[in-house]
Structure formats: C-alpha cells, structure tokens
Amino acid sequence: MNKDPVFVAYALAVVVNSLNILVLWNFSGGTRGKTKTTPNPEDARTVVKGAQVVAHDPDTVARVLRAHRNTLDNSLTFLLLGLVFVLLRPAALEAQILFGTFTGARLIYSVCYLNGIQPWRTLSYGVGLLATVAVIVEILRALFMA
Q1: pLDDT (tens digit, 9 = 90+) per residue, 10-58?
Q2: Gap between the terminal Cα atoms of the chain
C-alpha cells in the first residue's frame, strides 16, 4: 500500500491533520496553564498548583478550545469520507489535490483562528469545506454513476 499514491496522499493527510489536532489540544493546556485557571478543583491542587477554579474559560483559552473543536469536527468528517474515497480507487492526482487542499486549508484555518485573522480564517474554512463537498460528490458519483 505504501506504493499506492492515493493511499500515500491519504496517509499523509491523516498524519498532518492528526498532528494539527494534537498540537491544538496541547496548546489549550499550555494556554490554560498561562492563565492559571482550571475548571476542575483537583487540577488546582495537582496539575496547575494554585490555579483559580473557574466556571468559564478565559477568552484566550476559549479561543484555542474553539479552534480545536472546529478542527476536530471538520477533520474527522473529512478523513472518514477520505477513507471511503480511497477505497473507491480515485485517480491519484485528484486524491492528492483534494487531500492536500483540505489539509493545507485546515492548517491555515488553525493559525488564523488562534491569531484572530479575518477574512483568511473564513476563506480557509470555505476551501476545506469545498474539498469535503468535492469528496462527497466524487463518492456519490462513483457509487451511482459508474
């Protein structure tokens, strides 16, 4: 399988998108540590000693958590659809373009979300969404028009 260019493109998309999710996940913890806040009393006693227990996250923490959630939700959907797409044996170039486009768009989205950069955040979201819709269309086309 490691010689199949479609599978290689998919595997790279899975790895890069997973790393993006993991980086955002850990960044949320680091950001929470910098604000010395936690929603859990046990963490204030052990993980972030002396942290203030809060009912609502500070704005900086909430921003990272929103970026993480959006990236997780969109990546999971795309990568599940991408697996079905790979199994339908698409053209290598088409798969590489779609997987690369989605992955690049999600990386740009994460950077833009964390830094509050508009309109690039919305544009990169839209590009990723278009790549997802294109994969859906290609799956349906392969299933019903072949």
Answers
A1: 999 999 999 999 999 999 989 988 888 888 888 777 777 778 888 898 9
A2: 24
Q: What is the pLDDT of residues 126-137, one digit of tens each?
A: 999 999 999 999
Give the CATH number, domain containing residue 73: 1.20.120.550
The 8-class DSSP code of residue 12 comes to: H
Whole-angstrom Cα distance, residue 138 to residue 132? 10
The domain total for the chain is 1
Q: What is the CA radius of gyration of the chain?
A: 19
- Whole-angstrom distance, CA of residue 82 vs CA of residue 145: 19
Provide the domain limits for residue 45.
5-144
Burial class (CB in 10 A: 0-12, 13-18, 19+), 97: middle
**């970026």: which residue's tokens?**
67
pLDDT at 146: 67
